[in-house]
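User: Fold this; C-alpha cells only.

Assistant: Input:
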Amino acid sequence: MKPAAVEEFFRRLSLANPEPRSELEYVNPYTLLVAVVLSAQATDIGVNKATGPLFRTVTTPEAMVALGEEGLRGYIKTIGLFNTKAKNVIRLSEILIAEHGGEVPRDREALETLPGVGRKTANVVLNVAFGEETIAVDTHIFRVGNRTGLAPGKTPDAVEQKLLKAVPAHYRRHAHHWLILHGRYVCKARKPDCPACPVRDLCAFKEKTPPGAALPA
C-alpha cells in the first residue's frame, strides 16, 4: 500500500474512533499486565468476566501474592490454560516485588523476562499503560496487515516491523487499537464485512464480500 493510501486508511479509522481503548478491563498498569497475560488464547470478554471480581480486591502484586496460586485459580478457572496462567501471574508478581519495587517496568526487556510475557504482551502494556508507540500483532492485526496489503508478512514480527515503518507518526499511538478493532468487528477471519468497511476502496483484498451477503454471527 502506497504512503498516501496508508495515510488515508488511518485517517478514516481515526475519524470513526478518535480515542480507541483496549477492551480489556483494568485498574492500573499492574492489572493491565495481569489481564493481558490471562488473555492469551482467550477472548477479552471471557477475561473481563473473570477479572471483574478479581480486580475488585486485588490490584497490586503484593495482594496477588497474598491471594496465592490456589486463590487465583478460583477466580480464573473459566479461562483457558488457567493453571499455567495462575502460576505465571503469581511468579511475575513476586518478581515485580523483588526486582521492581512492586511497579510494572516501562521497559520492554524487563517486561519480557516476566513469566507469561512475550513481545506481544509487552507491546500492549507499553502502548496502553505508558503511551508508547508500539504495535502488538495479534491474530487480528496479522490478518488485516496481510489481507489489506497494509503490511504483508509471514510472521507477526515481520508484520510489526512493516507497520512501524508504514504507519504515519501522528497515527502510531493508536494504530494498534484501530487495527485490532477493525479486524475484530469488520475485517473478520471467516467473512469480512466489506460492505461496511470504511477503507474497502484502499484494500488489496480481491475476494471482497459483496453487498447483501449473509455474514456469520
